[in-house]
Design a protein that fits this description.
It contains five helices and seven strands, in the order H-E-E-E-H-E-H-E-H-E-E-H. With 171 residues, the chain is α/β, with parallel strands linked by helices. Strand 3, helix 2 and strand 4 form a beta-alpha-beta unit. It comes from Thiohalophilus thiocyanatoxydans.
């Protein structure tokens, strides 16, 4: 093979690798959207105001078995890590009737803020979320560092959040 052919082959491998990385990690280090919303308590929240803390945004629905199954784990994580700086925001999908959301919130005693995404504005801001559960982990610098459609591996997410909280405490 000629040097030129080797160069082209290496270039193509690198190019395909970069394209694959972009394709399979679409939210790699994107900035979290600059959005504001009202939680069910009527309080206005701005995602950018939470910068400096890790934030887990979880899109869910009362009709989603996976969402319901992981809810106790999210509640436990919130109780354990919110005092250290974690924020969890539960975003109820537009198709979920508000009275169902409110009833589940009360029945499950969900401690973290719940937002009704009635017009799908929040879902669109996060890349047009359609499936539940869908999660976005945002680091203290406001970057999306993990995007997951489906149930979370709670141990891995917890470890990642703990690492963020520890580096935040040291820095």
């Amino acid at each position: 093979m000629k040097t030129r052919d080797i160069f082209i082959a290496v270039f193509m491998v690198l190019l395909l690798g970069a394209l694959a990385w972009l394709w399979f990690s679409p939210s790699g280090l994107q900035r979290a959207p600059d959005i504001s919303f009202k939680n069910v308590e009527g309080e206005t929240m701005e995602l950018q105001q939470l910068q400096g803390r890790p934030v887990l945004v979880t899109f869910w629905a009362t009709s989603c078995p996976g969402c319901i199954e992981e809810m106790p784990h999210l509640i436990e994580m919130y109780h354990d890590l919110a005092p250290r700086g974690l924020e969890i925001i539960g975003v109820a999908m537009a198709y979920d009737p508000p009275n169902h959301v409110m009833r589940m919130r009360e029945e499950r005693d969900i401690p973290y803020p719940i937002v009704l995404d009635i017009d799908s504005e929040i879902a669109r801001a996060f890349g047009d979320v359609k499936l539940t559960p869908t999660h976005f982990l945002i680091n203290p610098r406001g970057r999306i560092v993990h995007h997951k459609i489906g149930e979370l591996d709670m141990d891995k997410v917890r470890d990642r959040i703990l690492a963020m909280l520890e580096s935040r405490a040291q820095g």
